[in-house]
């Protein structure tokens, strides 16, 4: 199994080489490249089975390289490396059909799993490609996954044996089963075969697509392809097909055997519109491109309520706010699935950060990469909900001993200061949220932290103001507002008391 590494940082390239050497036998380092252009040239020469590539590189980035490689007909499996901040790049990488996506810094366990998955895909495709033309199912499998090219010989054979010419109308259907693929595959396949057998006027080919967690169907040999599409939509969305039989359905029309792969690749990125439209709609391309959606406004207030509930250790409220978050994207409004996913990432990462700070989440055991992948790869609302529910299951709320209660109470108060310092939050407000008296909170806060509440929140606001003065071009009144002071003059006076300088002088001294 030949592996090519494309990474502009030499330390990371060398590190990957060492990780590769620690794997079981069967991997050969085919070469190393410093940028996408070199990587592309080495692919043409070495034809590796697997590419491990960074996204951002000079000359040509990783995504441009992969697009060029795939456009030229090469089909290596790709493992993409990136940082969480490059969420949009990761989404583009998955659109390209990238096998695995690893967050930096890389650890041996994740690397080994990604490499093993990529190798498995390579080996499966080799097995799928028939040595001879074989059945229509074998041919279409070869076109989709095995590197088979619809050349003159293949098209001639298919036209002669199956009456599929270059202009034959095809309806290519994806029945997405999602995370329950293995569990429901058998039943879903039987349902589909029974449905299709009721139409003797339609010829069809059905394929299992485990990596895509789907069943692919190719319908052909019909004159009124639009009529067949409407029939299939009505039947597949009927009560006979329960949610166990399908999670999302999409279709696209194509011409001849040569257009099948491009058709399914075109349809794939639109399948996640099931998130926006629900499971009771069949995604039909190109109709889906004309759907009018509205901008998705992130529910900031709901996020703030969630943070307070976590700080105050109220699991019922946490669950209720997460449930409200799920419902936020329903109600007849249509948002772009990309924006919905980005909202989920922001909301759940906010939950992670505050839960970690108050000690309600074992951060070391949290597999953030898997959670991110689950959200990015989701094609249905059910999958997004499952990702959120999986995170909720990891939250731990406990009462503890009296000393632990005091410690957690102060910790929660500090967390609320960190989250809501911009709003001018007071000791009384925090005490009310924690269901204790302000006197008790103030006493315990001073005892454990070493300074009183007002001093702590003042110093925290001033530290944030310093960051804004040095790192942003914001005006002084804007900075004052952002750190919780409504009166810029009062802010300047407090700042000078703490630092010995006015804000403007502090900015000049540190520029």
Write the layout of secondary structure elements.
Blueprint: E1 2-6, H1 10-21, E2 28-33, H2 36-46, E3 50-54, H3 62-71, E4 77-82, H4 87-95, E5 100-103, H5 108-128, H6 136-145, H7 152-162, E6 169-176, H8 181-197, E7 203-209, E8 214-220, H9 225-236, E9 248-255, H10 260-267, H11 274-277, E10 282-285, H12 300-311, H13 315-328, H14 337-357, H15 368-377, H16 381-392, H17 402-420, H18 427-434, H19 438-449, H20 453-471, H21 476-482, H22 488-499, H23 503-509
Parallel strand pairs: 1-2, 1-3, 3-4, 4-5, 9-10
Antiparallel strand pairs: 6-8, 6-9, 7-8
Helix pairs in contact: 2-3, 12-13, 12-14, 12-17, 17-19
Explain what you see:
The protein is α/β, with parallel strands linked by helices. It is built from 23 helices and ten strands. The chain has helices spanning 10-21, 36-46, 62-71, 87-95, 108-128, 136-145, 152-162, 181-197, 225-236, 260-267, 274-277, 300-311, 315-328, 337-357, 368-377, 381-392, 402-420, 427-434, 438-449, 453-471, 476-482, 488-499, 503-509; strands at residues 2-6, 28-33, 50-54, 77-82, 100-103, 169-176, 203-209, 214-220, 248-255, 282-285. It has a five-stranded parallel beta sheet, with helices on both faces. Helix 2 runs parallel beside helix 3 (62-71) and helix 12 runs antiparallel to helix 17. The protein is globular, with a radius of gyration of 28 Å. The two termini are 53 Å apart.
């Amino acid at each position: 199994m030949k592996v090519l590494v494309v990474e502009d940082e030499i330390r990371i390239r060398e590190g990957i080489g060492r990780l590769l050497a620690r794997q079981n036998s069967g991997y050969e380092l085919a070469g190393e490249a410093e940028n996408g252009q070199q990587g592309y040239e080495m692919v043409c020469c070495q034809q590796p089975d697997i590419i491990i590539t960074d996204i951002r590189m000079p000359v040509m980035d990783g995504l441009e390289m992969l697009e060029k490689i795939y456009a030229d007909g090469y089909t290596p499996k790709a493992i993409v490396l990136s940082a969480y901040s490059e969420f949009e790049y990761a989404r583009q990488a998955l659109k390209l059909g990238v096998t695995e996506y690893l967050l930096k810094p890389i650890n041996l366990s994740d690397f080994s799993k990604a490499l093993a998955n990529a190798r498995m895909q390579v080996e499966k495709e080799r097995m799928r490609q028939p040595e001879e033309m074989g059945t229509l199912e074998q041919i279409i499998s070869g076109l989709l996954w095995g590197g088979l090219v619809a050349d003159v010989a293949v098209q001639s054979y298919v036209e002669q044996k199956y009456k599929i010419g270059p202009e034959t109308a095809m309806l290519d259907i994806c029945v997405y089963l999602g995370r329950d693929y293995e569990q429901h595959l058998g039943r879903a396949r039987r349902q589909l075969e029974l449905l299709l057998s009721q139409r003797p006027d339609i010829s069809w080919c059905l394929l299992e697509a485990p990596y895509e967690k789907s069943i692919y169907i190719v319908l052909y040999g019909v004159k009124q392809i639009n009529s067949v599409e409407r029939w299939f939509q009505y039947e597949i969305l009927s009560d006979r097909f329960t949610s166990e039989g399908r999670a999302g359905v999409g279709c696209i029309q194509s011409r001849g055997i040569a257009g099948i792969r491009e058709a399914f690749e075109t349809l794939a990125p639109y399948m996640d519109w099931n998130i926006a439209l629900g499971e009771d709609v069949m995604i039909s391309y190109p109709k889906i491109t004309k759907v009018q959606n509205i901008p998705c406004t992130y529910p900031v207030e709901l996020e703030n309520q969630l943070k307070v509930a976590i700080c105050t250790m109220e699991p019922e409220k946490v669950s209720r706010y997460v449930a409200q978050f799920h419902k936020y994207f329903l109600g007849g409004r249509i948002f772009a699935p990309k924006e919905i996913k980005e909202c989920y990432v922001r909301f759940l990462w906010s939950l992670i950060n505050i839960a970690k700070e108050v000690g309600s989440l074992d951060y070391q055991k949290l597999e953030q990469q898997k959670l991110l992948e689950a959200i990015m790869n989701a094609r249905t609302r059910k999958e997004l909900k499952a990702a959120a529910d999986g995170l909720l299951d990891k939250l731990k709320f406990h009462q503890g001993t009296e000393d632990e209660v005091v410690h957690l109470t102060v910790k929660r108060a500090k967390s609320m200061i960190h989250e809501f310092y911009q709003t001018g939050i007071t000791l009384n407000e925090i005490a009310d949220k924690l269901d204790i008296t302000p006197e008790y909170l103030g006493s315990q806060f001073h005892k454990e932290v070493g300074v009183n509440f007002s001093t702590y929140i003042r110093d925290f606001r001033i530290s944030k103001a310093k960051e804004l003065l040095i790192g942003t071009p914001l005006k002084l009144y804007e900075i004052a507002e952002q750190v919780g002071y409504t009166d810029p003059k009062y802010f300047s006076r407090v700042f000078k008391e703490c630092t010995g300088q006015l804000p403007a002088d502090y900015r000049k001294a540190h520029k």
